[in-house]
Amino acid sequence: MAWTGYQVFLALLMVTCGSINTISTKWTDKIKSYGKDDKTEREFNHPFVQACIMFMGEFLCVVVFKILFCRLQRKNDGSEDQHTLTKGNRNFSQFILMPPAMCDLIATSTMYVGLTLTYASSFQMLRGSVIIFVALFSKIFLGRQLGARRWIGILFIATGLAIVGVSDMLSNDNKGDTTKILIGDCLIVLAQIITATQMTYEEKYVGSLNIPSLQAVGWEGIFGFVVLSILLVPMYFIHVPEVFSNNPRHVLEDAIDAFYMIKHNLLLLVPITGTVFSIAFFNFAGISVTKEISATTRMVLDSIRTVVIWSVSLAIGWQNFHPLQLLGFASLLFGMCIYNDIIVMKPLRAIGRCLCCRASEDDEMRQPIVNQQADQA
After folding, report:
1. What was the pLDDT predicted at 262?
2. In the chain, what percentage of residues exceed pLDDT 70?
3. Exposed/middle/buried for residue 4 (C-beta within 10 Å: 0-12, 13-18, 19+)
4. Which of 145, 169, 170, 270 has its CA 20 to 30 A from that of 183?
């Protein structure tokens, strides 16, 4: 069935905003500025401040939800209960969203630390490992059975992840920082375990409440922003190895230094603003694609986003081309398609049904001949 103009718009919006989000975050990491020490320029290595910025973008989803809801409610014709983005249960305790918000906080912060150490394209590809952990947690905690198709998909995804990791190690543009890149890749995969925990919790405890998706994302953004903002205070006094921080005091996070760097180089406001609005529109578009088309389509569009990010990274010189990364991405995409029943299995079932129909027709054609032979006997 052909897509409507609105569905095409949503697909383009999701791919565009999702790509801008990762590229903006990595661009922020690469911009140099003077910090509060005002001695030498250095890259903006403030992943926890960037995580706060990301939660601000999620918070905007609540704003969008309220605007849509109030606008539809003014019609006084009950249409607010029919809109796909506002339809659902609005009477719930917001604190039920606190656990997934904390998972989101830990996962996002860990991923942003990893992003400062590795490539933007690897960051996006390695996030595909979440499928493996979601599948395992669904089996353990939700009692789901994984068929042979899903296990085959997981095998291809795991193979693709390993190839991406090896390609990062062999890349000739890492300037000998293979340890940093390996740590970054491992942190991103580790973050997917936390993300899988978040998804499993949401399915078990939040899904049955039928909370509007925009409202749920927005409240998680509020909780994440408030809690992480408070945590920035103790982070200011926690010393870490130099590999995880380039601020003068080598602490886990120096928010004051981050603001000084923004003040000394206002160009940082461009990717930061891009991160805030792109994450808001990306969540809106992703939720809308799931409701208007399908969750499978959303997964395919997310894979296209990976291609865009990789292409941009190559074009602007953030990394050099390595054929192994192409092979790794192909394996990841193939595994995701098998896991979500997009290719291979579905065509095979269609062929099987055709063969069964053909066999049935042959049986029907054969039956009169058998009956005729029996009559002659």
Report:
1. 95
2. 86
3. exposed
4. 270
320 dihedral zone (left: phi>0; alpha: psi -120 to 50; beta): beta
Q: What is the dihedral of CA 144, 147, 150, 156, to 10 degrees?
A: 130
User: Any alpha helices (H) in 142-252, and if so which ranges?
Assistant: 148-170, 178-201, 213-235
Q: Are 42 and 248 contacting, i.e. CB atoms less than 8 angstroms apart?
A: no
Helix 178-201, helix 130-141: angle, nearest 10: 40
- Half-sphere exposure of residue 333, counting CA atoms within 13 Å on the CB side? 15
Q: Which residue has the higher pLDDT, 177 or 239?
A: 239
Which pLDDT tens digit goes with each residue over 321-338?
Answer: 888 888 998 998 898 888
Cα 327 from chain centroid (whole Å): 21
Do the beta carbons of residue 119 and residue 172 sit within 8 Å?
no
pTM of this prediction exceeds 0.90:
no
The span from the CA of 70 to the CA of 238, in Å, is 45
Q: Where are the alpha helices (DSSP H) in 236-317?
A: 255-264, 269-292, 295-315
